[in-house]
Amino acid sequence: MSEKQEEKSVPAALPAAVKRKVGGLGRGLNALIEGSYEKKSDRLGLVPHPVNSVGLIPLGHIEANPYQPRTHFDQDALQELAESIKVQGIIQPVTVRQTGTNAYQLISGERRLQASKLAGLDTIPAYIRKADDQQMLEMALIENIQRENLNAIEIALSYQRLVSECNLKQEELGDRVGKNRSTVTNYLRLLKLPPDIQIGLRDTAISMGHARALISVDNPEQQLELFHRIVAEELSVRRVEQLVRAGLNPATKPDDADAKKQQDATPQVPVAELRRTERHLTERFGSRVMVKPGPQGRGEIKIAFDSVEDMQRILHILQPA
């Protein structure tokens, strides 16, 4: 073979299609999907996509999900996701339904959609599926429930919407979200608590265990009194359960017969009276005072002080005139 023939057998440059695929490495699904399109109009999502397929869709053609249960998204977390998308691309496609020619509605993937806009993307890989309004709501709620950072009230509200708006029974709801019926029931019961307690649970002032103990108290006023005591005294869940069993709720009876007998023989001080006593003593000593009842009429009174001087001041008040 001559030197000229050898020169002709070596390609001068890679084909354009090959270069496009090589350059697409590190850009997530966008690169893989782009490589399957031959026309620019296809890459811009200007052709209809069949149902149950994945295609690149312009961000401007996707409207927000009107059934999205979450309206607040952490902006710092969105910016971090946007920076990741700039480097890695979209790893998981969003899910949409087609509502018209080149018009789509988001089903799931709100954070990815918003972050893609922040990252300056023109298109986003999307899985196109068929869904009616009820299915839209159900899918959005279930995806919302499966998020790890939801608080108990957000989960309870999502369960309630699935029951009331999607006409699901609690057994069906448990199957859909992968929970047993008792778990679903416990969450739904949280919504019967007074609004202040729900807010406390939402803001992690109390735990799910505290809230479940409070549900066992029938009187809303007693629930609120015990809730404020939990926050003020940082009571453990076990201590709250003990207080409830001790008679804060007359309708609640201990399972153990001996415990019930001891409860009947122990005079109980109403919670309202305890709070009044605490307020009176706090004003008297100018420091926080906590009154803790115990079994058989016993208990303890704690007076807090901030320094040695403060302790001396309290001791002086305690001295007889």
From TrEMBL:
Keyword rRNA-binding annotated: no
Region forming the signal peptide: none
Xref: CDD domains: SPO0J_N
Alphabetic keyword roster: Chromosome partition, DNA-binding
Biased composition (Basic and acidic residues): 253-263
Record-annotated ParB-like N-terminal domain positions: 55-145
Family annotation (Pfam families): HTH_ParB, ParB_C, ParB_N
SMART domains noted in UniProt: ParB
Region (Disordered), start-end ranges: 249-268
UniProt xrefs under SUPFAM superfamilies: KorB DNA-binding domain-like, ParB/Sulfiredoxin
InterPro entries assigned to the protein according to its UniProt record, in alphabetical order: Chromosome_partition/occlusion, HTH_ParB/Spo0J, ParB/RepB/Spo0J, ParB/Sulfiredoxin_sf, ParB_dimer_C, ParB_N
Similarity section: Belongs to the ParB family.
This protein's name: ParB/RepB/Spo0J family partition protein
Organism whose genome encodes this protein: Hymenobacter canadensis
